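From the thread on structure requests for the teaching lab: each student submitted one protein with a one-line request. Submission from student K.M.:

"Model Diaminopropionate ammonia-lyase from Bosea vaviloviae, tokens only."
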Amino acid sequence: MFLLNTHPDHRKPLLPEDAETLGAAGAAAVESQIRQRENYAVTPLHDLPALAAELGIGAVSIKDEGHRLGLGSFKALGGSYVVVRLVLEEASRQLGRAVDIAELQTPEVRAVAGRMTFSCATDGNHGRSVAQGAQLVGAQAAIFVHSGVSEERIAAIARFGATMIRAEGTYDDSVAEAARVSAEKGWSVVSDTSWPGYERIPGLVMQGYTALVAEALRQMPEPPTHVFVQVGVGGIASAVAAHFALVLGEKRPVFVAVDPARAACMFESARAGEPVKAEVGEPTVMAMLDCYEPSLVAWRILSRVADAFMTVEDADAVAVMNRLARPAGHDPVVVAGESGGAGLAGLIVAAADPAIRSKLALDATSRVFVVNTEGATDPARYAELVHGGRSASGVSSKPAG
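Reply posted by the TA:
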């Protein structure tokens, strides 16, 4: 499904608070913090010329977040960034003076952090980031997971010392449960989705994601003409779209928000003209995007700076995983998890449809930017979908018997 953005707010300026958070200054603040991390490195931007030629467009560039800060996902830029920021803010309040990132490991600041607990709900990647951030500063983490989160992803979070809490129902149910329990216990919720009265922290999480766009703009010889990014609750899509719009202004690229067909909360909101909950059905294979209620902050941003909304099928996402694992020509191998290549899947679907190509002005001069938002964060699932149940080395990932 595809539709152009016809919302009355389309192409209107972002709200001042969103512009302040997601512009160049916000990205610079994030980069200043993450450069202090021991495993900091700029993630690669790969060109895919063989794929671009097949699609009849000028260029495809993919930012590979599968290498980000040891977590294998763009989420490493969000949750842990906010945890560190909140600890520094609380330390400044308690100590009665400004506390800098250089003091993060001092006894005084670690004593403050040691009395703090950070919580969130997660499909997997965001929880890892929050837990990693808590471990980094010496705080506690309580991570809520719903029944659809795999044991492998739960173990990946727990290894950072987080307390894991099971919640019944969907991701959205776990968000509500995390908010309820955290309010009772006085924990600090670091959510990547927002609701009425809870907007600042999700905005800061999205600010974290702008760092990847700032990096990409420095890596590109010239800015893209088109951008396709996957949605979920909307944090990554709105951060990328907003940063491009704020930095490039009238020269910003055409932005397309891509939802899984089975969890199309932003697409359905665009169709309705207001935030709506998508119908809950069979879970999508794109596990990190299996969300049915959009973030309110993300909606108000995308209603202004997204130019189109579309959906892709599970089969499209799996096909992209396999294409990136076994590329044509001299395109590099890119390891993309189930949700990682959803934006690229959107481009491939759009490029194959003459009507959509025309509406988006996709042609032989187009330069398209996409984000691989995760690597193989669930190795067993990746092996199943890409290697027929075998790891890349050819060893079966399935249990014997």
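TA comment: The chain has two domains: 2-73+203-387, 79-191. The chain is about 45% helix and 15% strand.
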